[in-house]
């Protein structure tokens, strides 16, 4: 076997900052640096700033570009992984930006793009606590809901890099119209935005809750964070909202388990930081509704990754994830 290059570079490209890191096959970060991104900056300027960050982490770590397998870039928005282009990213004000070609020309290494939810899934698969399996799903419950699906050792991207839109599976065919065009999407019942909206409606209708004190009477200030915290402190309204969201999440996860028969489902995203009650309710629904053999084959866990998940997932594209050990 030929000696493989030991490192990859992961880039986490966000609307307020970009982070670059050199990562080894164990997911250890040798060096990292970041720079601001602003919507007003032209794409050319941001790309040249990213290039400078790459040069700086290489210099800091003493790693030569000849030891780098490639550069992975995790970003929100619509991407094209065949042409390594950002097709549209509202947070950066980008459309049709050939970032892969530009960085590839500058450094002479392969460049691959990956979307946020998929990069979190790859990070868990390559380096996280779920790295022993080739069948895992990462579910993020944040402002919206999304999923990154690894099935049979392959990241499922679909033909247009859009697979895993878990937030837009319909749970009620006649439910509220969603921005995506479908009705009764999971995101309307489970996301951070949905939780805040439901809390505000109930409080407006006169419900008693410690949320009133927390928001000092300004209902518009309530977010999923306060609801999660108050649920953990025993507030009955917050508990019932988290349970209701957990119920719908459980129905959605049952569909997901029936489709992919995963071994591990990893949960991340802001809502899941206080997601104990939500997940307990979801698991109860799964045990009740899911084909029992498939339910018992799946385990559920919260992500243990922190702010580095983006760069680790992007770099993880270049490392074969821990395959199941097969005796030969
Ligand atoms: Zn939708």
Automatic annotation (TrEMBL):
Q: Which keywords are on file for this protein?
A: Kinase, Transferase
* InterPro entries xref list: ATPase_NBD (IPR043129), ROK (IPR000600), ROK_cs (IPR049874)
This protein's source sits in the domain of life called Bacteria
State a single Pfam family of this protein. ROK
What Gene Ontology molecular-function terms does this entry list? kinase activity
Q: Which family does it belong to?
A: Belongs to the ROK (NagC/XylR) family.
Its protein name is Glucokinase
Q: Which organism is it from?
A: Brevibacillus parabrevis
